[in-house]
Amino acid sequence: MKYLEEALDWGAELIVLGVFINDSEDARDADLSARKEELLPRVPTGLGRTLLQTSRALAWIYMRAENMRRNRAGRAYLEYILDPDYQGWKKFRKAIHRFEAGCRERDARLVAVIWPSMLRLEGGYPNRIAHERIASVLADAAVPYLDLLAEFEDKSSMRLAAYPGIDLHPNEIGHRIGAAAIFNYLVEEGHIDPSYRPAHSWVPSEGHYRKEVRRKLSPEHFPP
After folding, report:
1. How far is CA 44 from CA 36, 118, 140, 174, 187, in A?
2. Entry pTM
């Protein structure tokens, strides 16, 4: 709310609110840290570590079991922070309504963008329930929104995560994909004038890349 009020004081006409699927976490929740700890991979120590380093079969079994454990922990974590009775979820709903009211009072338009986690985008994305719950809150508050999940499905989670397997927020490539989708959405919905669209787009050809490589490898780039 502090940043919203600051932006409105600047005279902002359009507010784009990014929403990640864990934004209903309550920082004052004493149990939250332990639940989030369960989402991280457990690194074996001592004899267990030695055995896994010397046996591919044991290492494979351990990784499978660990992935199953983390998947269960992830589902439990989402159910926890999306529970209607959870204090963080109540605060999240209240905040969305306050954003909508604050923008309406100052004649600013508000658009929300739901970001997916960079996890199993190639198939079986496990967090759809979070998108549905968040979308229901936005619809209830009459806030138009763009769900970016469709833009990321069937792409590589490993290539798009900030820290694959650990930090599932999008990296710079993911942000570039999201930025393009947001821009197009804002134009299509009339929030941005179509004249802002680039008049031309250009994709370098393979021949262009070869030419650039030859230029960069030419003798003048390597003085004695």
Report:
1. 19, 25, 46, 32, 51
2. 0.79
